[in-house]
Amino acid sequence: xxxxxxxxxxxxxxxxxxxxxxxxxxxxxxxxxxxxxxxxxxxxxxxxxxxxxxxxxxxxxxxxxxxxxxxxxxxxxxxxxxxxxxxxxxxxxxxxxxxxxxxxxxxxxxxxxxxxxxxxxxxxxxxxxxxxxxxxxxxxxxxxxxxxxxxxxxxxxxxxxxxxxxxxxxxxxxxxxxxxxxxxxxxxxxxxxxxxxxxxxxxxxxxxxxxxxxxxxxxxxxxxxxxxxxxxxxxxxxxxxxxxxxxxxxxxxxxxxxxxxxxxx
Length: 265
Description:
Shape: globular
Order of helices and strands: EHHHEEEEEHEHEEEHE
CATH topology: L,D-transpeptidase catalytic domain-like
CATH superfamily: L,D-transpeptidase catalytic domain-like
Structural class: alpha+beta
CATH class: Mainly Beta
Distance between the termini: 23 Å
CATH architecture: Beta Barrel
Number of domains: 1
Helix content: 10-25%
């Protein structure tokens, strides 16, 4: 993925996770970043490996991994009783630049439905919090509330943690496969950086929207982005960063302001 440099910004305190083989390996995995999970299906072995890796890094990163807030939501079953509510959240979006199909019922677990929850926290209103342990993203709201979204996490989603900011947002963003991926899949050469990348669309791995996370003026290569793979929400998948169904990432995009802080725990 192409690194993006913005005008100089105040440097933020961000810790980068390192993979077992060291910083060089971490960089290569991050560059392999936000791509579709269709290249390799999720396996139990990979999930266990990611869980072990995440646990190891959390022990090393100190206060960066402290719980940012407490989700006190206890509601359950309400959507099963009201199918119209599900349709209002995850129905089709025909007015998008590329019309988005409805999420089929049964492909998204109820606990990952978008909803407002009680969320006492010291984080500022407007902040984003990614809870990698429970596969949730929170948008902090006033009065101890937050909008909660279910997310799927790829390798890159586990390899970085800390505090940064959303300095760029894009609707139907372009995607550029990294050189390492092109070596494995030569058919992606047509979307290389030299060829201008893959334009936005339903087949684009970044989906309907993307939030770009920066440390100061440097692109961390960490993304919050859309996906049509509804089944991957709440799961560790083979690749990508923080993925959300199109309906949720569009909702989040409309609520989040540029320069909003983000905490990944």
